[in-house]
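User: Some background: our group keeps a shared notebook of sequences we're curious about, and every so often someone picks one and asks for a predicted structure to add to the entry. Today it's my turn. The entry only has the sequence so far, pasted here. Could you supply the structure so I can complete it?
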Amino acid sequence: MKSAPYLLALCILTTASPAQDHPAVTALPNSIYVGADGKFESAPDTAVIQFNISVQETTSQKAYEQASKQAEQVRQALRDNGIEPKAATIGFFSVQPAYEWTNSKQKLTGYRVTTNVSLKLRDFSKIGPITQQLADANVSETQTLTYTLENIDEAKNKAVEDAYHRARNSADALAHASGRTVGELSYASIDTFENQHLPVPRMARALAAKTEPAPTPTEEFTPQTVTVTAHVNALFILK
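Assistant: Of course. Here's the predicted structure to add to the notebook entry:
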């Protein structure tokens, strides 16, 4: 009489998944250990505009006053587009002395006041007018635009479900080939990853818009798909 196999193991790895360190799993009799990748793709529901206010003047008071004026221009740009100023987040105003080197000596030339502003938008059609108005007001030399999912946890859960189904299918296939069936789940580990989109600089487009016809929102602001991936390692009991 032949003894039952002690362990059937199948590990599926893809080069698309980042390198991972998985916990050691103690081999159990009559079990199968599988790994699989899953993903969930969705159009982003939120656009994030980020820019900074940076002003340099001969005195810290003048720099602060000028920065305050630019902050008011930001508030006005939001109001003009039907957005409450409280929708944007702004950091603290920091003041730093500015120097230049002359004849190997450091010379104080003024003071710089800076702060960062971030705005989340659900209505993508407002991105163009706001970035254009900020560029015309010379509030910030560079703006960055990124797209994301507001409820990223739900997307991660769907990616995990996809990875688990793939792992279970692989386990069922191998068990069937060996004349066995897959039982309950004994152990699992999960890793999730969100693809990172490089921010899109808005400065060049804003300057070009002064001499070119304004593009439609979909022509200029088509968002990328947000992809969340998951890797699941699962240990099943064999029947």
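Suggested note for the entry: Residues 37 and 231 are 4 Å apart (CA to CA). The first helix runs from residue 60 to 80.
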